[in-house]
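FORM 7B - TANDEM STRUCTURE REPORT

SECTION 1: FIRST PROTEIN
SEQUENCE AND TOKENS:
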Amino acid sequence: MPNVSDKAIDDDIKESFPPVGQWVAKSCRSICTRKHLLKRLPILHWLPSYNLKFLAEDIVAGISVGLTVIPQGIAYAVVANLDPQYGLYSAFMGCFVYCIFGSCKDVTIGPTAIMSLMVQVHVANSGIDFAILSAFLTGCVILVLGVLNLGFLVQFISLPVTAGFTSAAAITIASGQVKSLFGLPGKSNEFLEAWMNVFENLHEIRLWDTVLGATTIVVLLVLMQMKNMSGESCWASVGKYVALARNAIVVILATLLAYLLSEAGYSEPFLLTGNVTAGLPPLQPPPFTTILDGRTYSFSEMIGEMGSSLITLPLIGILESIAIAKAFSKGKPIDATQEMIALGLSNIAGSFVSSMPVTGSFTRSAVNNNSGVRTPFGGIATGILVLFALGLLTKTFYYIPKATLAGVIIAAMFFMVEIHTAVEIWRTKRIDIIPMVATLIACLLLGLEIGILFGVGTNVCFILYQTSRPMLLPQQCTIDGKTILVAQPDQRIVFSSAEYLKHHILKHSNKAGAQIVILDGSHIASIDTTAAKVLVCMTKDLQLQNRTILYWKCNRATRFTLLRMDKTLFQPLFTAADNLEQMFKETGSSKTNKEQNK
């Protein structure tokens, strides 16, 4: 290092805290600007330039999504162990809120299979009030994470973990619907319990429910293929819209069949959905206290009952919604913060109309996109159609066969099992299949909440192991009869890898009989306090062995951290030489000067 005074060096290497006050002031000033307002209210971007030509396309797309979400909402309420109307209560408020705050025209917010499955545990144990409160709390957590720009947390859920979680959720949901497909008694929705219930009640299988459920699945899969009809004829267009509205078509036909059989005097050959509460949901705050089995639960006790779902529900909601927005963005940048704000407000607003937690739906977003939606205004049409169904069609819902709803859910789950992703992972990097399989098995056996945490933990263990085992590239050479060992770590040095690095440098230096050890810091972006302390010990150990150690190509951050740890020890050990020959000459001349001074 250049010869400068100790005070100048101390001032130079001194570490200062970031100017938090200035950052806060700058952020506050930026919030109070027209640019920020337009950014946080995307409706102000597209509404002033809205073309009436878009209206017809948005309404058609909105109705197509509505025809999909009505049967799905009823079915997902069943998955969540809720009465059917709660699925519809959850299907309209997100459409209205996202129209104002959402940044992607294709995304539709509403009930989804995975969120319903994660809620059903609380509903089964604690009742509907917990599901509604979980929507409010999920919204609050997502909104806070969005405002604080903490959406990066979902990046800790890797592709293998996501694929394992999604596949396990699909298998669990489908397993929970097998009983309804066969007309069996029981309410279990967990994977193992669902199949135990099926095998225990095989003797009670209802023939016509089974036939209707199986027919529903087959018809849905056939109708889905109609979207692939080629050509420009009117039949191709008809096939496209039939495929988009396939869920509504099979539910309407099955409901009509059940009604006609009932009117003809047949004693209900199918198990029916039954009474659905008519009318709009009450507009009221979410329940912050509840009474269950004669016991009054306070707000804090309700939160305690929810446990880890206060973390997993928001994270899964964010993951699904942002993934869908990216999938339909067509290369345009996605404002993850805005998407989180929109999703958080959708859940908070939904909790005031008795909604369960909601997020973006890939199926309905695909319907929206394929229907030619032009702006988020399509969500208004969807929401109005759901309200219309709640107000006028609830008596019709009585005749919806449970086997048909089960068929709708199971058919959708076929495409949620990530087989293609597993093949891709196996082809790309086979070790990544371990966290996927671990997540899949844990979710099936331990439940989704514990399963995804287990999967993330498994992935983090892989990352920690890799960071604790930096690859060391030792190179040995001889200059003027002296053996030189150059050790180059391939990554930054942190507390978990410092001892490993020390051990291997000492090992290689002893093995090579090196007189000079050079630590090449080309790839060391930074070090922490623990690593600096270990490097102090390593430097002293090498000096006790009468070996010279030099620190070469270390960046400013690394040098200053070591100097703050022990300036006297490290200051003469840094070298900025361009090559080994120059470094060797500098080292030799430095030693000669020291001997002359003595």
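SECTION 2: SECOND PROTEIN
SEQUENCE AND TOKENS:
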Amino acid sequence: MPGSTVNKDLQAERDKCSFDKNEFTLWWVGGKEKLKEKLDLEKFLESDPEFQNSTPSHFLSHKELYEETIRQATVIFRKVRRFHEDRGNGDPSNYMATLGGLLGNGLIRQGNPMGVHFAMFVPALLGHGTPEQQAEWLPRSLKCQIIGTYAQTELGHGTFLRGLETTATYDERTQEFVLESPTLSSYKWWPGGLAHTANYCVVMAQLFSKGNCHGIQPFIVQLRDEDTHMPLKGITIGEIGNKLGMNGVNNGFLGFDHVRIPRKNMLMKNAKLMEDGTFVKPPSQALTYGTMMFVRVVICRDMAAYLSKAVTIAVRYSAVRRQSHINPDQPEVQVIDHLTQQYKLFPAIAKAIVFKLTSDNLWEMYNAVTSELDKGDLERLPELHAIACCLKAITTADAAAGVEVCRLACGGHGYMTCSNFYGTYGMVTAACTYEGENTVLLLQTARYLLKAWQQAQRKQELVPTVQYLGRFLANNNRRVDWDDSIGGIIRALQTVAAGKLRLAAEHIEKRQKGGATQEEATNQTSIELARTADAHCRAFLVQSGYEMIEKGCETVSAEVGRVLRTIYHLYAYDEALKALGDLLRFTTISESDINRLQAKLEAGLAELRPNAVGIVDSFDIPDDVLGSPLGAHDGNVYERLYEEAKKSPLNQEPVNQSFHMYLKPFMKSSL
């Protein structure tokens, strides 16, 4: 059996690690208490026969996969609930998060059909429901006595929420809403768990009362009978079909044909509809989209986790795999000794860490703004919305690219489904589209930046994430002097963002003077605007990463701090080198400066090389969660690959029936 001994090359990598891996793990996880809970939960779930399936999921049919995923989802929920209750921590809100992230995905490889229940349905009740509505719906939801989903996207509309066609028309006579899908394109499309799992749903629909449309509002709708699970009258519901990944999530479609719900089923924490049909606007329309902002914050954290998983697999494999010579008279070297392999993998390590730290920063920001919203203070809501939009776009795009680079770094073996790059990529690349298509989100951030630019020109006070615009204007829009210190790189990247924003604003103004409307001019400048938002976000990531790393270094040993700074420096150098074209436009960087920056990056790779395996080990991802023979802790890659190959249904018999049915007659015939 694989795992009895550790591969000697992998063990040698661990032996030369220069820091205490347990200390790094404590920092990464968030302290002793969180690490203990993590390890206790993993031990509690470890090798549980209820999670085991003798046939790997990629050999199951679509129907079998869903049924097995539902079985696993109910098992994991019961066990996680018992885990917390046994420790006197039975409040369901304490174990909701446990079902997400890497652990949940590691146990349920093709996505959890109950995931949207916890990620969006429950937060929607919290974010949009009045205390009375929460008292009615939350207790049953948290105990999974009802299963919900969140239906916003339609067959014909996704990110453009104002274009949604589903209607909820208020009937004053009966004090009910009548839900209607007036066209095929108005059918809800994509909600996770909708097809056959959920029996309730938060539906986003256009509210009509007294002959007027009041925009998109949230409604809670029962979809299926609680006992028979049959769809209710007027409900058309089903599954949308197979996808690139996440095929256990049970994404569905939903249509309404004169479905009536009581007035109290409109979630009215923000907007309200009175008994006589009078509509009361929310303090800010953005409050309606609070659930999506919450989910975007969570997505950033998830991208860090998935990237850490992919790079753990690739780094361990690269330490075990030997390929080619560097010196002809020496043995084949470990793949990780090739500088090009280091450049593929080590920046991915750095991105996973910076994304995680920035998501922690964003989480603090989200909680602070949410607290302010509860007090009626909406001042920082646009800033949070703008930074959450671009961070979701950049972290998902970079994580998807990073997972693919890790797959490619593992050669042919990375192409195997069992390597788990395919499944991980399917989870990550989906996030580039759901909860806001990335280009659209970048343009939303750009719209905010244009307003901030106008404020900066008027010398108004700027919020922290855009204060660099004021410094740029104070410098009279000049190219900033290049300085390859960390502070200099941050200033340079901020100057790039500000310079791009200035040009985009000027081009919009020029196009308007040429006769275009503001909307037409903005569309004609949208390529520049998207790139501006990208630059703004990358500058924020480099700055936030620096601040969070330095904050972390205050709590760890000098050895761990040295490694953290090396990781961060590598991230900053890599981001700067990838922005060379822009740096040449907006700073004084020269060819000799570029050569020096490249040398710094290569020195960072060399400094990180002895600790690469130690760092990914410190992510402390169990083999069951990695789910890859290439990245197992023992490094027995070839033995594990062979064991996986033997599980193929085609290997359960020496001769497949197709030989007798087709191949033999063909071979015996005369063509």
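SECTION 3: OBSERVATIONS ON SECOND PROTEIN
The chain is about 55% helix and 10% strand.
The chain has a mean pLDDT of 91.

SECTION 4: SIGNATURE
Preparer initials: ____
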